[in-house]
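Justification of resources, computational component.

The compute hours requested in this renewal are based largely on the per-chain cost of generating structure records like the one below. Each record pairs the submitted sequence with a full C-alpha cell output. That output is archived, and it is also reused by downstream analysis tasks.
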Amino acid sequence: MASAAGHRTGKVAEADAGPREMPEDVAHLPVRNHLLLVIGIMIASLMQVLDVTIANVAIPHMQASLSATPDTVSWVLTSYIIASAVAMPITGWLADRIGSRRLFLGSVVVFVLASMLCGVAQNLEEMVIFRAIQGIGGAFIAPLSQSSLLDTTRPSRQAQIIALWGMGVIIGPIVGPVLGGYLTEVLDWRWVFFVNVPFGVICMVILLAELPDGGVRRRRFDLFGFALIAIALTSLQLLLDRGNVVDWFTSLETWVYGFLVISGAWVLVIHLATARQPLFDRHLFADVNFLIALFFLFVVGATMFATLAILPPMLQNLFGYDVIDTGIVLMPRGVGVLLTMQLSGIWLRRGYDGRWLVLLGLVIGAWALFDMASWSLETDRTHFIVTGFIQGLGIGLVFIPLNAAAFATLPQRLRTDGSSLLNLARSVGSSIGISIVMTLAARNLQRNHAQLAEHVTPDLASAIDPAALDLYRPYSESVLAIANAEVTRQAAMIAYLDDFMLMAWLSLAAIPLVFLMRKTPRYGK
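The structure output for this chain reads:
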C-alpha cells in the first residue's frame, strides 16, 4: 500500500531512470479497487470512441438547425478528427510533464465540457470550434486509458485487460450510429452530445478516487517535430475530406495538401532519426513487434472501419433498412468481436502463440470480405448477420494479440507514447480507408451505371408484345425513370462489392508480416 501511496504523490523521476524492478506478476501501479477503476476507464474510453461516429447520424438535422450547407456542415466531423489526430502524438510528453493522472482527469473534463457546449451551439462556427476542443480532450483519452489499464494490471492479466479495452474500441463504431439515430429521432440531435454529461460525471468521480499517478519526468518538448506531425496530419485529413468535393488531383487545392503531406512526413522521418531528443523515443521504432503491430493496426483500421462506413448506407439506400434495422443487422459483428477478444485474452494467458491467432484472424476476416463481395440485391438479412458475425470473429482474433505483442517487449516508460502511436495508426488507417472506399464507390457507381445503361436499348422492346407497348406509351417517362433507378441501384451494388473485394485483398496482403513477428512472451514487462 505504501508503494501505491508513493505513486500518488507524483514524485519527480530522473529522465534516464528505467523501469524499477518488481516481482514478476505485480502491477506497476497497484490500486485498491481495480474493478472500479476499470469501470471508470472503460466509461471514458467508450465516450470517446462513440463520439467519433455517434454524431454522423445527426449531421442532416444539424445542417437544418445551424443553417449550414452540405459542404460546410462536414466541418463538424472534420474539425473533431483533425484536432484529435494532431493532439494525440503529444500524449506521452504531456503525461510525463504533468503526470498521467492529471492529464487523464483534465482530458475527461475538457471532453465533457466541450460536449455540453456542442449541445448548446447556436451556429456552425460555434459548433466547429467546440468540436475541435472536444477532439483535443478525446485525443488523450484513448492512449491514456490503454496505458493506465496496463500499468494497473498484473502482467499475467494484461492480455485480458487489453481485450476488455478493445471491446470498447471495436463496439463503439457499431453502436454509435444506432444510438445517435435513436437519440436524434426520439429526443433531439443535441442529445447526441448531452448524453456524455452524466457518464462523464460518473467517470470523473471514479477516476478521482482510484486513478494512480505514475509520477512526472523532465522531458524536453520537440516543437519542430510536433509542428511537422501537425502539418502532415492536418493536410492528410483535409486531402481525404476535400478530395471528393474538388475531384481530387484535378484541383490545385489537393496538390497543395499532397505536397504538405509528403514533405512534412519526409522531413519528420529525418528529424526523428537525427534529433537529440525527438518527440518519440527511438527505442519505440527499434522494437520489431511494435512496428509490425503499428502497421497491422493501420490495416485493421482501414479494412474494418471502411467496411463499417459503407455498410449502413448500403443497407439503408439499397435494401430499405431504417436506422434501427441497420443497427440490428450490424450488432452480430460486435458479438463476434466480443467472443474472440475474450478467447484471445485467455489463450494468450495460457501461453498460446499470438502470431497464429493473428494469422487465423486475418484469414477469417478476408474470407468474410470475399463472401461480402458475392452479395447481391437478393441477399437476405440472415446472410448479412452470419457474415458479419464471422468477420467479427476474425477482428477479435487480430486485435488483441497485436496489442499484446506491441506492449509485451516495451519498457513501461514507453507505454503511453506507444499507445498514442498505435491509436493514431488505427485512426489514420480508418480515415484513409473510409476515404478510399467512398471515393471508389462514387466513381464506380458512375462507371457501372454507364456500362449497364449501354445494354438498355430499344432492341429490348422486341421481346415485348407491341400491344403492351402501346398500352404503356402514355407513361413512357415514368417507365424510363423507373428503369434508370433500377440501373443506378444495380450499379451502386456492384460498386460496394468492388470495395469489399479490395478490402479482402488488402487483408490477405498483410499476412506475410505475421511471420516477421516474434513470439509474444507469456508475461509482459
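The first strand starts at residue 12 and ends at 13. The two ends are 21 Å apart (CA to CA).
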